[in-house]
Amino acid sequence: MKNFGENDTIVAISTPPGEGGIGIIRISGENSGIVASKLFKCAKKDLTVENFESHKVVYGKIVDEKGNVIDEALCIAMWAPNSYTKENVVEIQSHGGALVVRRILELALQNGARMAEPGEFTKRAFLNGRLDLSQAQSVMDIIKARTDASLRMAAGHLQGKFSDEIKAMRHDILEVIAHLEASIDFPEDDIEDVAKDEASAKVRSIKNRIEEMLSTFNTGRILRDGLVTAIIGKPNVGKSSLLNTLLREDRAIVTDIPGTTRDSLEEYANIGGVPLKIIDTAGIRETEDKVEQIGVEKSMSYVQKADLILALFDTSSDLTKEDEEIINLLQGKEGIVLLTKNDLSCVLDIEDLQKRLQGNFKYMQISTFNNDGIKELEQEIVNRVYSGTVKQAEGVFVNNVRQANALKEAQKYLEDCLNTIEMDMAEDFIVIDIRSAWEKLGEITGDTVDEDIIDQIFSQFCIGK
After folding, report:
1. Which of 10, 122, 130, 186 could join 116 in a cystine, given CB atoms 3.0 to 4.6 angstroms apart?
2. 239 annotated as ligand-binding
3. Was 465 annotated as part of a binding site?
4. Residue 258 assigned to a binding site
5. CATH of the domain at 252
């Protein structure tokens, strides 16, 4: 981020674009009060923003450089270090029209502030020690959370539950390093073997803790980003009806005319706290319609990249040529086979289907007409996502690739450390490996991370946060 680190004052609109009841303009930096006082005039004429009590709301008016009133507003000063960034922060709450909010922003820029870059407020909170890097990343996770479980995980990270686990392991590693270095510095005390034995036991314990944390990564990633779920089947098998049922709203058009869905629809559904990113694909069949052909090709591609495949087969009819194409497409894969139209007489030879479709599939019968089997399907999805992890512990789940990679590298260094101990090598070599693990864990909290990585992380934030 260019210019960051200087004692400048930054400003941004912190509410979403568009019209709303309230618009918030956030100013942060040493001169926040001075900048705000030039555009916000309170009802008490002898009171300026620089003299506001911290965290007290004050009513006033926004005026331009000519003294013209732009809007009525509320102003809150939060003086350092008791603010989000641990700097002087002033927030102005105006009416939420796009024009008035933009005008207030322009006035702040004219009076000495500069435009904040993406994530710069949170980056300042991190650099000023209010948040560690894991907590800072969780800010965007809270904003983007789509289910209660997603929110619990993000809130747990923000409260430091995940960071506390990392810091505890780093503390234990430092103890091991201290004991090993003591045996190096005082060889006459004959503590070498004892130090190595203690180091081996502690390193194994830390390695097991990392392994337990890594086992939560798949669940954490899904809670954060959503479970990419592809609904696959021939035309009129009930794909759009299933989408509408899971969404609990009529999102997709449902008719008995084949080819109604000619492109893929993407929607999020909340299934037992799991955010499902559902892709309702075009029915797979041969068609002369070029638009529908593209939709069919996209349907086939989604099978390759989906986290979960829901393959639909109509129990009220025999297997068709289109079904055969889907069977061939799904060979060797895994997911859930949904036997649809369970409310009608069963004609499909289910045992024959199971013989033909080779892979790891669970078979379930459903009917979107009377919702038969839908609750069981939803519970199966939840079980697959959590896969034995404790739902109450979302706050310590690993939820992004950066965290997972750092943990894997730390685990590798700990394995190298154990091998070094087993080979009865000198303590100096053991310390090298275990210190490398300590540094890798520090990358998660930001204690040992490069500035380029910090910049890259905060560049993904929205402006104003």
Report:
1. 10
2. yes
3. yes
4. yes
5. 3.40.50.300
